[in-house]
Task: structure prediction
Amino acid sequence: MNYDKEMDKILDNCDRKPRILLHSCCAPCSSTCIDRLSDKANLDIMYYNPNIEPEEEYLKRKEEQKKLIKLLNNDIKVLDCDYDNDKYHEVVKGYEKEPEKGSRCYICYKQRMEYTAKYAKDNGYDMFATTLTVSPYKVTKWINEIGFDLEKKYNIKYLPTDFKKQNGYKKSIELSKKYNLYRQDYCGCIYSKKEKDSLFK
Result:
């Protein structure tokens, strides 16, 4: 499936602008996604990322997300969630030594997307989506498969995406410079940080 074209097809066929709850991993990634969606949908941001460590890094990224939304000067709300780092470690227990793009990442995608899907269903949104597909370091096929599974589980429409298409990742870098956003140099979890650090020893 061409997820990027499917996204446009779904949005173009809506009889009104849908309310979409967009899970965001960080401000830089969300910048290009918001740019792409804002004309076709009414968005709110779900900032739920219990994988990010240490807590100071989590808080820094969260504040950058809020900063971006203020700079955009629109009606988007940022839903501020609990840190939940202990829950992250519970779900990835036994997968700590998995490499990036391995099973641990799949579990992490699912944890964050499921929280978003459930909240969207419980709070009257038309659809849910995630910014995770803007990154070339994430497995887009897995992310969309999880989304479709959650659509069935919670009976709420999932918006398939591949935000890295149409130079989405490049644009996120450009927008980050425009808005002077902090761009992290590792995915978020302590395992990705260790893996990154080991490459530069």
Notes: The mean pLDDT is 95. Strands lie at 19-23, 42-47, 78-80, 127-130, 157-158. The chain has one domain: 18-199.
